Amino acid sequence: MGGRGVVGDKWSMRILWACAIGSAIGLYMVAVERQTQNRERMLAESLKAMESESSSGEDV
Questions:
Q1: Which of 5, 7, 19, 52 is the most exposed place for a label (fewest CB within 10 A)?
Q2: 39-to-30, 31, 46, 47 alpha-carbon distances in Å
Q3: Residue 33's closest CA among 41, 45, 44, 43?
Q4: Is pLDDT at 19 greater than 60 in this prediction?
Q5: What is the pTM of this model?
Q6: How far is 8 from 16, CA to CA, in rounded Å?
Q7: What is the pLDDT of residues 24-52, one digit of tens each?
Q8: Rounded to an integer, what distance in angstroms lies between the CA atom of residue 40 and that of residue 15?
Q9: How far, in Å, CA of 38 to CA of 5, rounded?
Q10: Inter-residue contact 15 to 7 (CB < 8 Å)
Q11: What torsion do the CA atoms of 55, 56, 57, 60 make, to the nearest 10 degrees?
């Protein structure tokens, strides 16, 4: 019996690295998506605040 287990050592390390890189890419994509959502939310809130200020100024 030459090999240890079903997957050899070299291939198990490759699979491990592939999983680690895939997880890192996934976490990066989630971080970018959340940052984009936060930026859009901040822009919407500032626009809403500007509109409320301008409308309150027109009423006076």
A1: 5
A2: 14, 12, 11, 12
A3: 41
A4: yes
A5: 0.64
A6: 12
A7: 999 999 999 999 999 999 999 999 999 98
A8: 38
A9: 47
A10: yes
A11: 120
Give the integer Cα–Cα distance in Å for 4 and 58.
79
Helix (H) or strand (E) holding 59: helix 9-59
Q: Specify burial of residue 42 (Cβ count, 10 A radius: 0-12, 13-18, 19+).
A: exposed
Tell me the longest C-alpha to C-alpha distance in the chain.
90
The one-letter amino acid code at 24 reads A
Residue 58 structure tokens: 């027109």
Q: Alpha-carbon distance 55 to 47, whole Å?
A: 12
Residue 35 has which token pair? 């940052």
Q: Which residue has the tokens 């090999």?
A: 3
d(CA 40, CA 27): 20
